[in-house]
Amino acid sequence: TLVVGSPSFRGAASGARTPTTPSVASAPGASSPAAVASVGAIAGLAAAAAVGASSRRQRRSAQAKPSLVAMGAGTLADCPYTVYGQKDVDVASEREAMRDIGSLLEVQMPPEMAGDLDAQRAYFQKNLPRIYKDLKIHGAIVFRGFEISKESAGFTQVGEALELERCEDPLHSVAARDAVNKEMGVYEAVNKPSRRKFYVGMHNEMVGNRAPGAAIFVCFKAAEEGGEFLVADGRKMFKELSEDWLKTAYEREVRYSTAEFPMGFIEGLPGFLQSAVEPLAFGAVQQALKMKVDFDTELVWERSEYDGSKILQVRAMPQVPIVRHPYTGEPAWWGSMHSHSEFLRSEREKVYGDEGLTETTGASRINKTDVYYADTSQKVENDRLKELDEVTMRCAVPVKMKEGDMVLLDNYLVMHGRCPFEGTRKHAVTWFKSPDYAKAEA
């Protein structure tokens, strides 16, 4: 029996960013940047809540499942619920029994297909069984040299040829990712110049309790420097992380903080106002979150790790850091710990430079994340995070992509990330439901 979107395992946003609308706060004691960010965030959440609730009602009212023909016409299915499988992984015995994980597979376009887009499309149709088999084994496949994928319209034909069912961006319920072609589900993949120094840590794509089963990333234009796509096999990480910590983390489960609202301005108010404003702020944010997102969250009063000020922290529900693949049953390390950890993010800033969040909008200041054990709310220890980073970087394979290059990946088998870059970068992604591996070559 598979556990699908189980409330006890529902997890954190993978790269999720809560939308905000900047506003000007004029109340006494609320003129600081943190106060502006917080008040603006509350206002933005409230304004977006009605829209989010309406869009969810519309999605839920659609009873008919779109066909593959409809998918080709631009209709996107809902992003599926995360499938964790039974919580029955025997870490010691399954690590010992697990096969060696092969290296990332690269496939070059046959030279005789140069200039023939119809032949390139037919290549994916004809080789679907072999491609599915390779994806199941390797977790990800790099396709190089294909011309059909140099533009958005041709790129969408690749997923159709592989009989993959497009789904909505998992961020759909909480934010709007920039799109190359939203109707066809082609989204930008962290290309903004303002985020060029940001090292996108390794993660499986998931927001709330929804996760795509697969994805195809594509390069429309490579950055002048850096910007490599990163892939790390979760099965290999399951084998290489220390056994005792795997057992501990799996048993205790983890929770991610996905946003924090600066509330330091409350401490600048007279005492009698603080006691009145605090529950009002808590209630406003709580109600806005309930109306805006369609998954459970918890609000917690905390002190910011950045400056010690009072914050309201948004935490996702507990999730297991090891999942069983929905088809193969293989255990794999899973989640966003490497990308969401505040400690690891700070360590990366020492190497790649400050991300510049303090100089950007209030929305960016709110997007601060961290990771905790679910049973006690204790932060995951720095020593454990250092080990996680070492193993992740050892398993991560950098893929320098050129125009038209694609990476097909199984979101339950491998994690992905991105290196910092300089110049102009235009990469994109389309999310899919899990492949029907019954079609795979034996």
Protein model, in words:
This protein is of the alpha+beta class. It has helices at residues 33-61, 68-72, 91-97, 117-126, 128-138, 152-161, 234-240, 243-252, 264-267, 271-292, 337-340, 342-352, 362-366, 382-395, and strands spanning 105-108, 140-144, 179-181, 186-188, 200-203, 214-221, 225-226, 229-233, 254-262, 297-303, 310-316, 322-324, 331-333, 370-373, 397-399, 406-410, 414-418, 421-422, 426-432. The chain has a 7-stranded mixed sheet with strand order 1-2-16-6-19-4-3, covered by helices on one side. Strand 10 and strand 11 (310-316) form a beta hairpin. Helix 1 (33-61) runs parallel beside helix 10 and helix 4 packs parallel to helix 6. The longest helix is centred in the first third of the chain and has 29 residues, at 33-61. The protein is globular, with a radius of gyration of 22 Å. The two termini are 25 Å apart. Mean pLDDT is 83; it is low at 1-39, 45-73 and 358-364.
Structural class: alpha+beta
Shape, per Cα inertia axes: globular
Strand line-up in the sheet with most strands: 1-2-16-6-19-4-3
Rounded Rg = 22 Å
The N- to C-terminal Cα distance equals: 25 Å
Number of strands: 19
Helix amount: 25-40%
Number of helices: 14
Report the uncertain regions.
1-39, 45-73, 358-364
> In this structure, how is the largest beta sheet organized?
7 strands, mixed
Residue share in β-strands: 15-25%
**Averaged pLDDT:** 83
